[in-house]
Every structure is written in structure tokens, then in C-alpha cells.
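Following up on my earlier thread - several people asked me to post the actual chain instead of describing it. Fair enough. Here it is, all 371 residues.
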Amino acid sequence: MISNQLLTSSSIRKCAPLRDFVLPTRNSDPRRAPDSQFTYIDVSAITSETLSIETPSVLCGADAPSRARKQVRTGDVLFATIRPSLRRVALVPEQLDGAICSTAFTVLRANPEFLDPQYLYYNVLSEDFVDRVSELQRGSSYPAVSDGDVLNQLVSLPPLVEQCRIARILSTIKQARRCCTRSVGRVEELRRSITARLFTPNNEWLTVRLGDQITLQRGHDLPSQDREPGSVPVVSSSGITGWHSSSKAQGPGVVIGRYGTLGVVQFLEVPYWPLNTTLYVRDFHGNEPRFVRYFLETVSYDVHNDKTSVPGVNRNDLHALQIMWPPLADQQRIAATLDVVERRLANEEAVGAALDGVFSSALSHLMTGAS
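Reply from S.P.:
Thanks for posting it. Predicted structure:
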């Protein structure tokens, strides 16, 4: 639990422009050594999911982009000045010491007399700091701020010992989130592996036409008289877009993205209204609905509408597919197995979402000293 002392320590904080707490950095032009390799960090190397440098490049000096100019050290904080609201902020790890980053970053090097590098990282990552910088961005097609805009921001710093405690708290939450992300990845890989194994046909599976097993129907837009708030979800190709009050809803059942987000399969256990961008299963013909959902997730949807250049899923093409189809008992076994994995994945994702909330709340409180 975050202590009250940490949350209410603003009275002993130093407040000054960020430039007063950081050290100067230097530029370097890798093109002066055209045959030498260097590690390059551009804006795309930082992901907003992990808030870290994930995909640096290794280039020869001769191939160096014109923006490859800023030299970085271990512990430097990189703050992307292009579209700062996207929060592309990262702490330079030891293995990237001496790398070159893009001029699209402000490189912040903590002065150890005043500032802990990890605390600096979390400070400039905070919503308050990012919002203040974002208000200064200029340009419409390429909105950006300058190094000066970042360095001129007022920051409030507690004593170094408290900075280190705050950074440890936030790092612990961030590490837990990374572990959760890895766990989600492992469950997703397990799901793919189990799905591939479960959908391997045996001698009892028959070759059939998909349209003889399920009947797909194109969704339709919501009538104006039904466009009122209610308890029935309205489903588009990308998910639930709202709720309405119609008594003419379909389901429970399975919905496929027909346009837009092609082939995304959604399973709804309540009545729903499928919009025109979807196909839905109108009739399961006695088959297990949950199995149908998992089966349709294995189908390729790289289909183009014959009448337009817009990619789309064609109902008749799906109905015509020749597939291997299991008996009902196998369908139920497959669905039950994948349901277990699906619940595990949902639990892991819920833990990740909860940790995101804890991190966001802690970051806000610890950086402002609010109670």
C-alpha cells in the first residue's frame, strides 16, 4: 500500500523548470563512420503498451537516417516530441548505452545531485506532465513540440531518498504488469496450440458444405423506432457499439465481421442486434453454438466483394466452403476445452487491466503529492 507520507509530501518538494535538474547531452553523426555499425532508436521503437524500447535497429553509418543524431547513455529518459500525447517515453537500459536516437526525442539525463533517473522517467510519463506538454504542440499534419517546450516544464521534486522510494513502488507495479502481459501471451499461444490440435480431423469427421451445417445472415441497420436506450447490445464488425430497446433482437449467437474488421468472431450469450457490417448465424441446425464460434475463428476471411474494391466477407462464399465437420459429442468436447482456456485468458486480461488502473492512480498521486 502507498504510504500517506509519500502521498502528502508536496510541502518539501523543490519546484523549478526541468532543465534545472538535468545534464547537457551531446549529438553524434554516425555517417562520419560509414562502415561502422550503431544501434538506432527511433520513435517507432517505443511501444505505448510497455513504455520501453522494444525494437531498436542496427544500422551502418552509411545508412543512418538524417534524424539519427542524439547519443544516449544508460539511465537517460527519451521523451518523443512528435505527438507527445501518445506517451512514447522510455528509460535507456544498460544494453543500449552509447546508442543513437532520433532528433524526434528530447534526451533527459538526470543530474544525480537532484534527480533519480527512474523517478524522472515516471515524472515525465505522468498524465499531468504529458498533458502540459501536449498543449504546446504545433502543426496539424505533424504535431510536435520542441526540446525547449519539454525542458521548460515546471516539475516538483521531493528529496532523493523519497524519489527512490516512489520509483521502486511504481517499478514494482510495472514489473507485475509485464509479468501479466507475458502470461497473457503464453495463454494465447496455448490457445492456438490447443485449437490446432482439437481441430485435427479424425475418421468420424465428415466432409460437408458449411452452409448445410449453419445458416449465415447479413446484419441490418437498426430501425429508427428502435434507436432508444435499452438493454440489448448493438454489434458491429468491431464490437458492441451501444445498447437499444428492440424486442426483435437475434441470439444468443455468433457474429462475424463482414466489413471493416474482417472475420472477427464474437460470441454473445444474450440477445443482440447485428448491424450491416456483420454476418450472424441465423440457424445452428442443432450444432453446438460455442463450437461454431471457435470453428469460425479458424476460417480464413481474405475474401473480396465482387461488386466493390472494398474487402468484405461474402456469405455465399462461406456457405460454399467444403470443410471437415465433427459429430455433436466432439463439438461439445472441443467447446468445453476451449471455454476453459478462454476463461483463463479473460482472467489474465482482467488482472492486467486492474494493474493498469493501479499504476495510473499511483503515478498520478505520487507525482503530484496529492492526498
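Residues 206-325 form a domain with the Adenine-n6-DNA-methyltransferase TaqI; Chain A, domain 2 fold (CATH 3.90.220.20). That should answer part of your original question.
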